[in-house]
Amino acid sequence: MILYVILAIVITIGLVWLIDKFIPSKLRPVIMIALWVVIGFLAYNTFMSIYKPIQFNQIKNKRYALVIKSLKDIRDAQLAHKQVTGRFSNNFDDLVKFIDTAEFTITQRRDTSVLDVEMTKRFGGVETFKDEVIIDTLGFVSIKDSLFGSDDRYKTMMNVPVGEEGAKFELKAGFLEESDIKIPVFEALVKKAVVLNDQDKDLVRQEEEVVSVEGVNGDAIRLGSMEEVNTTGNWPKIYDTKE
């Protein structure tokens, strides 16, 4: 497209030169003005064809960073939910309530030796000991304080922070069965078209088809999976190093 526009500009400049050489002087001003208008229009389109993708990428990267920050909060909350309950939540209201009320149990593991009564009897009263692991409960700590401190942003983590007004992340949770074992999984996502709803539609469509180690692949910004055991996101590491 850019090459076509540049070629058109060159041709138009050539026409200006030809008109200056061969067109009667009375007609030159009108034709020259029209041609320079065309040149200006083509030059503007050439500039925009280069500038618009640059501007789009700048906006996209800023918005993706905000969306990914929210998804990381969702991941932290979900991992805490699984640690305490053994499963992931499929409902943001329940997840927020969990953070408000649940606690981590602080434990201490220690190894000890205790008298093995059965073996002692078997050896005719000779004391025999066995090793055991004892788990001591030291106390409890609020999940909210552990994950978010005094910040209450977890109460709005379901809201997509940029793009389409009022949009929310999609959240699913369930179990995968492997070797007769049920493994909890979850997935949270938002479509790129929602995050970039006010941007050029052609550029958004191109972004939805991205397959690159340096890009967010696919048509959505996604965390976790309902098809495999995975709690990572589909974004490149650069979004993790920005923090």
Please characterize this protein's 3D structure.
It is built from eight helices and five strands, in the order αααβαβαββααβα. The strands form two sheets. A three-stranded antiparallel β-sheet has the order 3-4-5. The protein has helices at residues 2-22, 28-85, 92-101, 117-122, 143-148, 192-195, 201-208, 238-241, and strands spanning 103-115, 129-142, 170-178, 181-191, 220-224. Helix content is 48%, strand content 21%. Strand 3 (170-178) and strand 4 form a beta hairpin.
Draw up the topology in text:
Elements: H1 2-22, H2 28-85, H3 92-101, E1 103-115, H4 117-122, E2 129-142, H5 143-148, E3 170-178, E4 181-191, H6 192-195, H7 201-208, E5 220-224, H8 238-241
Helix pairs in contact: 1-2, 2-3
Count of runs of 4 or more consecutive helical residues: 8
Binned strand content:
15-25%
Backbone structural class: alpha+beta
The largest beta-sheet arranges its strands as 3-4-5
Regarding quaternary structure, what we see is single chain
Number of strands: 5
Summarize the helix and strand pattern as letters: HHHEHEHEEHHEH
The largest β sheet comes out as: 3 strands, antiparallel
Q: Which of globular, elongated, flat, extended, rod-shaped describes the shape? A: rod-shaped
Mean pLDDT: 84
What count of domains describes the coordinates? 2
Low-pLDDT residue spans: none
Query: Over the alpha carbons, how many angstroms does the gyration radius reach?
Result: 32 Å
Indicate the percent of residues in helices: 40-55%
Distance between the termini: 38 Å
